[in-house]
Write a structure and sequence with these properties.
Layout: H1 9-21, H2 28-35, H3 49-68, H4 79-93, H5 95-101, H6 104-110, H7 114-130, H8 136-155, H9 166-180
Helix pairs in contact: 1-2, 3-5, 3-6, 3-7, 4-5, 4-8, 7-8, 8-9
Length: 182
């Protein structure tokens, strides 16, 4: 009778995400200890820590996309503004996962998959406002604004007075500017 597996890729991934959200250092050894297994058993599912991190980035991108996708094509509800707020809320709720998702080394490894899906959603939402479905420059501007805001807020660089409506004002200015470019 075969020995039942104590782990699965899903179990390992969820435990790693929990550790990440709790701000714990993720190593294969620490993860194995948390799961009550020996570290080598993890390598049957993930070749190395980088493969696990790529899976975590993929999961984060997928979860964010699943929250944004229902907004695409709903022009009367200001989908770009709503998606921007979803993006900000996701980054606030999952700061460590968001930081991992923005790791250029890992993003390059996932760009053909979930990262590309997120980019395409942003491009489509921006295109709905600008009227140009391939408005890469505008999508870069919006993403730069979103990411910059997230990072400034996360690092506390807004200072004690806070952003004072800067997110809403910046988003409004971008959206108005994009719609005028039609």
């Amino acid at each position: 009778m075969p020995y039942p597996a104590k782990t699965s890729p899903e179990t390992i991934l969820e435990a790693a995400l929990e550790m990440l959200e709790q701000g714990q250092e993720i190593s294969m050894r620490a993860l194995a200890e948390r799961l009550g297994v020996k570290a080598p058993s993890l390598y049957r599912h993930f070749a190395d820590k980088e493969a696990l991190e790529v899976a975590m980035v993929h999961t984060g991108n997928t979860r964010l996309c699943e929250q944004i996708e229902p907004l695409v094509g709903r022009k009367k509800s200001k989908p770009l503004a709503r998606a921007a707020k979803v993006y900000l809320e996701f980054a606030r709720a999952h700061p460590n996962l968001y930081a991992l998702m923005m790791d250029a080394r890992l993003a390059a490894l996932t760009s053909a998959g979930s990262g590309k899906r997120l980019w395409n959603l942003l491009l489509r939402l921006v295109g709905e406002v600008s009227g140009n479905l391939d408005d890469t420059a505008a999508a870069v501007a919006v993403w730069s604004f979103l990411h910059g805001y997230v990072r400034l807020e996360a690092t506390g660089l807004f200072g004690p007075s806070g952003p004072r409506g800067g997110f809403e004002k910046g988003l409004s200015a971008l959206t108005q500017g994009l719609s005028k470019s039609r």
